[in-house]
C-alpha cells in the first residue's frame, strides 16, 4: 500500500516539476549550437608528414563488402605513409559498440581515428574525448556531428549524387511513371541528404511525370532489403524503377527482381559495387548504376588524417594538402573534403572495374 | 492354488542410502497365481523393496531371480522387459496423452511401415477395460481422471504387458469402499490368470480379503513370511510393531478450557462441504478418515493456504479471512502439513532458514535481519526438540525423516501457537521419534494448546485423541468421544460399512 | 545417497560463489599486469560505463531468478524507456518530468509482466518472450527508426563524468547504491528470506505464510523500474534515444546472473557472486578489446563460461560421487 | 458414461481439442488474408503467395525442429546461430565450386546435427538446463562463425547457379524450398504422431518422472530431439544460403526468438507434452504473413514486432483458458465408477 502511495508521490512531483518548467529541448538548443571549436593551433603547410603514425579505421560494421573496399584503400595509403594500420569495429552497426571501440582506441593512444559514424550524436562525446587526448578524427562514409571531428571525407557532393540518381531513374523510366527508393536505415545521414536532394529534383517541372511513391528501408541488411524490395513490388504494381542509394539495397533488390517475374518490367538503379552488380548487369536486370571508387575514400582519409596529425592542416576551410596518387585537395566548408564525381557503370564499361 | 516354483525370488537384498540402511538382507518368494502381502510400519523398507523391483534402485547386495535366473534390474525399462509391473500409490500417467496411449506406451500395436495402429490401440484399451469391467473412454486424456480411474489405467497397463509380476504399492489408500471392491475384483482375476501379485497395504481387512501369504518387515529387516491362514491380525501387528503399543501414546488427561478454534459450516466445492466443529484449549482432537476424504483440505482451508467457498473460522473469537495464512498465523494458528517434503520444508535451504522463516519479520530489527537472532532462535528451538544435525547451515534435506519433522515442529512451536494443527505428524519417521512427537503433543495440550490432528494411523488416533471426528467423502460423518472410539467404530464411520476386521 | 548428494550441493553453491569472485580477481590482476592501458583510471571509467546497464539490471534479475522465474523483457523495457524519453524530449517536455515518467513507465511494464505471470499464472519464460517482442515493437512505434539527440549537456555530462577530480565515474554511485539496496533486500530482510523460500518451494513457502504471487509481482515491478532507469542512463550516456537501444542485452544479463552462481531453477544464489559475474564479463570484454582480440572471441568465452558455471560443479560432483 | 463395451475407434476428444487449436490459427490466417486482399487484391497474386511461402519455408523448418524440442519440455535457443554456421559452411564449400545441391543439404544438416548433439549431451549428461546450455551455445556457435568468417561475405555471384536456382526454381509452380519444408514437416509430423519414438517424446514432456518409470530411454530421446532441432537448423541454413545468396557471419542472428514465437503461437506448450509440428508450422506461416500483410496494408512496419509480441501473449493466455475449461469438463465426466 505504501508503495502505491510512493508512486503517487512520484507522479505528483513530476507534475509539479512540469509546472515549474525545467530543462526542455528548446531551452537547451541555444546552448548546444554554441559548442566551441576545438581546432586550435595554426596550420603549417610545409610541415613534413610524420612517419609511424598510428591510424585506426572504425567502419560502421565489419562484415560489409563496401566497407572492406574502403578500408582496403586506407590500408594501402597507410602503407605509403609508413604508418601503422589498424582495423576494428563491431559486428552490429550500433553506435553503442562503436563508442566502446573509440574508448579502446583512446586507451591505445592512436594518432588518427577514421570513423564512419553509426549515429552522428551518440559517438560525439567519445570522439571529443579522443580529440582532447590529441587524436585527430576523420569521418568518412557517414559523418558525425560537425563539432566532434576534424574533417569529413565526402565521397561526392550531396547535390551531385542526388541529381545523378534522379537522372538515371528518369532515363530508365522513360521520363514518366512510378518510382520508389530502397534506402538504408531511416536515420542514415548520407542516404537522407541524397533523398532530400532527389525530392527537390523531382519537384522540378522536367520531372513532373515521375512519381515517388514510397521510401522503404532495408536497414543495410541484405535479407531485410530483399523482403522490402518484394514488398514494394507487391504494393505498387505499376512501379517502374527502384532507386537504391546503398550497395546492400541495390544488390538485394536486383537479386530479387532477377529471379522473379518482374524481371524486365522493373528497372533497378542506384549506388552499387561493380563486383556485386556484374551478374545483374550482364543478365539485364540492371541497365546502369553509379558509384565513386570507395577505395579512394579510405585512401584519402588516411592522407587527411596524416596531414592533420602532422600539423599540415587543421581542418579549416581553404587549407590545401596533397593526397598521394589522388593529387591535391582543398578543404571545403565545415571541414568537408569532396572526393570527386561518381562514375556511371553500364554493361559496356563494368568489366574495367574490380572492386 | 499356486505353482510349486516361485516366479520371483528376492534373495538377501540390502540397500543403504548414505549411512541409513533402508533394507537389510531381505528374502522372500512370489508365486504365480498368488497374492502376497507386504506389510510393515512406515519406514520399514517396503517402498525401497518396491523400487528395487521396479528397477529404480539397484540392490547393494543380494539378487533378484525371475523364474530361476538372476536378473539385473538396473532401470525401469529392464523391470518392464522382465515382466514386472509396478502400480504406485500415486499413479504415474502422462496427463497430456490419451488413456489408450498411456496403456500402450512402448507396446503400441503397429500397422504398415511400423506406424502406430491407433484404431487397434484404442480397441485393445477398450478390450482391457471390458475385461476389467470398467468404462473409461480410451480416447480421453489422462488428465482429470480420478485417482481410482488412474489406478485402473495402471492395472490395464500391467495387463496389456502380460506382466508376470504385478506390484501394487498401497493402491487402495485413496479409494472409496466401492472402488476398493472393484480393484480387488480386478486383482483377483489377474491373480487367477496366473500372475504373481504383490500387495502393499496398511489395512489388514484388505490383506485378509485378498492375499494368501504375507511378508512382514520391521526397520528394514524381514520379520517373517507366513501363510495368512496361519497368522492372526494380532500376531501380524505384534510382529510389525515389535513392542508394546501403550508406551507410544503417552496421553495425559486434561480438562479442556475455552473454545480455541471454532469452525462453522465451511465448504469447498467439490472437496468438502459443511464442516463444523470446535476445538478447545488443552484438547487433542483427531480428524480421521480415509486418505482422500478431504481431511487435509479442511485443515489447509482453516489455515488459509487453500480457499473456501463458504463458512467461517474463528480463533479465540476472532474471525479469520479465508485464504490468508498470514492472518491465521497472527491469530496463533500453526499448521504442520501432511507432506513434509513439499509443504513443510524447503529442502534445499538450511535448517536455520527453515526454522525461522515464519517469524522472519518478528526476528528482524528495523526490518533488517543480520543473522544472529535467527541463528540463536533456530538453535534454541532445535535444541528444545532434541534435533540431531551437524550445523545449522546444513540443508534440511540432509536430515533423517524424524529430524526433519522435528524441524517442522520447531518452526511452528516457535511461533507460540494457540491452535496447533498437525497433519500426519508421524508419517515416515522412526519409532523412537514417534513417541517423542506424541509426548510433545501431549505436553503442549497440557499447557493449554488446542491440538487438531489429522492421522491415518488408527492406533495414533485412538491413543492420542480426546475426541475423534471422522470424515467420509468430504463430509463430517461422526464425532466420537475417547470412550466411544475403537478401531471398528472409526473404520465404520470412515468407510460407511461394517469393517471386516 | 540422496542425503550426501544434497550435502555436497549445499557447499557447491557456496564454493561457486567464492570461485567466481576468485576468478574475477585473478582476471583483473592478470589483465592489469599484461594488458597495456587496462589498469588506467580512464579505462576504469570506460569499463564502468560499459557494464552499467548490465550491472544494474542484473540486480533485480537475480531476485527474479532466485524465485524461479525469469524476465527476458528487460532489454526491451530499456529500449522503450529510451524511445519514450526521446519522444517526450522532442515534444519539448522538461527532462525533469521525462526521467520520472520513464521510471514509472518501466515499473508499469514490469507490472504487466507481473500480472501475466502471477495473476494469470502463465509461464514467465513465454510471457517475457512475448513482452520482449511487444515492448521493443512499441519502442519502434513510438520513435520509429529515428534517433533523438541533443539531450541537455548537464545531464549527459553527469552520466559520463567523474566525481570531482577523482577517476571514479558518477554512475558508479548508482551501481553501488542499487547493489547495496538489492543486496540488503535479498540477504538481510524478511523479503529476501521469502524470495529464497519461494524459489526453493513455492508450496512450502505458502505454507509458511509467504504470498508468492504478491512477492513475484513486485519483483517484476522492480525489474521493470530498474530497466527503465537503465534506459534513461543509456540514453544520456550516448546522448541518443533510439528504439533499438540495448537490443539483445537480456541474454548478457541472464548470462552474468547465471555466471554469478544463481541457479536457474531458483532458490540458490548470492548477490556478490552476481556482481563478480558482471565484472568478470565486462573486464574480459574490455581487456580482450584492448589486446585487439576480436569481439567474436568474447562471444565464445561468454558462452563457454556460462555452460561451465553450471556444468563444472555438476561434473565435479559426479566425479566425487564416482570416486567414493 | 454408462455404456460398457468396445468404443468405436472414433476421433478422440484429445485430437478434437488439438485440432481446434490449430483451427484457431487457420481462422486468424484466413481473416488476415481476406482483409489484406480486400485492401490490395495483388496480395493474393501468384508471385505474392510464392514470396510468402518462400519466406515461411525457412522459419517453418526451424519451427518444426524447435517444436520437437519444446514437446520434450526443453528449449533450443541456439538455432539462429546454428543456421548461421551452417549457411556459412555451405557457402564456403560452394564458393566457386559447383557441387550438387544434395551435398550442400547434407553438409548443412550435418553441421547442425553436430551442434544439436553437443546441446543434447550437455543437457542430458551435464545435467545443465536446456535454457542455459543453448544460451551458451548461442554465443559459442555464433562466435565460431565470426572467427571463421572474419567479416568476409559470400556473394551470390560466387555461388554456383545450380544452387541459387534451387533457391528460386519451382516444380509445377511450387518452389523447391517450400516442397522441402513441407517434406520436413510431413515426415516429422508423421513420426511424432504415428511412431513409438514420437509418442515417447510427448510422454517425456508430459511427465518426465513417469517417462523414466515407464522405461522410456530418456537420454537417447532427449539427445535425439536436440539432434533433430540442430539438424533442421542446419538444413534451414542451406535454404537460407540458397534463398538469399548473400551470406555473412551474422546470418540468422536473432532468429531464435521468431522461432520460439512461431512455436508458442502455434500452440506448443512451453512446458511440453502437447502441441504439434503442424501448429508450429502454421505459427510460422502466420507470423510471416503478418509481416507481408503489414507491408501491403501500408501499416508502419514498426508495428510488426509489437503485434508478434501481443500475439504470443494472446496465444499462451488463450491456451491457459482453454486448458482450464477442458480440465473442468473432463473432471465432471471423470467420476463414473459407480
Automatic annotation (TrEMBL), chain A:
The keyword Transport does not apply. Residues 1-21 form the signal peptide. One of its GO terms (cellular component) is outer membrane-bounded periplasmic space. Residues 23-36 have a biased composition (Polar residues). Residues 23-45 are annotated as: Disordered. GO terms for molecular function: carbohydrate binding. It comes from the Bacteria. Keywords: Signal. This is Monosaccharide ABC transporter substrate-binding protein (CUT2 family). The lineage of its organism: Bacteria, Bacillati, Actinomycetota, Actinomycetes, Propionibacteriales.
UniProtKB/TrEMBL annotation, chain B:
It is found in: Cell membrane. The keyword Repeat applies. Residues 8-244, 249-498 form the ABC transporter domain. Its main location: membrane. Pfam families: ABC_tran (PF00005). It comes from the Bacteria. This is Monosaccharide ABC transporter ATP-binding protein (CUT2 family). It comes from Kribbella kalugense.
UniProtKB/TrEMBL annotation, chain C:
One of its GO terms (molecular function) is transmembrane transporter activity. It comes from the Bacteria. Keywords: Cell inner membrane, Cell membrane, Membrane, Transmembrane, Transmembrane helix, Transport. It is found in: Cell membrane. CDD domains: TM_PBP1_transp_AraH_like. Pfam families: BPD_transp_2 (PF02653). InterPro entries: ABC_transp_permease. This is Autoinducer 2 import system permease protein LsrD. It comes from Kribbella kalugense.
UniProtKB/TrEMBL annotation, chain D:
Its main location: membrane. Signal peptide: none annotated. It comes from the Bacteria. Keywords: Cell inner membrane, Cell membrane, Membrane, Transmembrane, Transmembrane helix, Transport. It holds the Pfam family BPD_transp_2. It is found in: Cell membrane. One of its GO terms (molecular function) is transmembrane transporter activity. The chain crosses the membrane at residues 20-40, 52-70, 101-123, 130-149, 169-192, 222-242, 254-271, 278-297, 303-323. It is a multi-pass membrane protein. InterPro entries: ABC_transp_permease. GO terms for cellular component: plasma membrane. The complex is composed of two ATP-binding proteins (LsrA), two transmembrane proteins (LsrC and LsrD) and a solute-binding protein (LsrB). Part of the ABC transporter complex LsrABCD involved in autoinducer 2 (AI-2) import. Probably responsible for the translocation of the substrate across the membrane. PANTHER family: ABC TRANSPORTER PERMEASE PROTEIN YPHD-RELATED-RELATED, AUTOINDUCER 2 IMPORT SYSTEM PERMEASE PROTEIN LSRC. This is Autoinducer 2 import system permease protein LsrC.
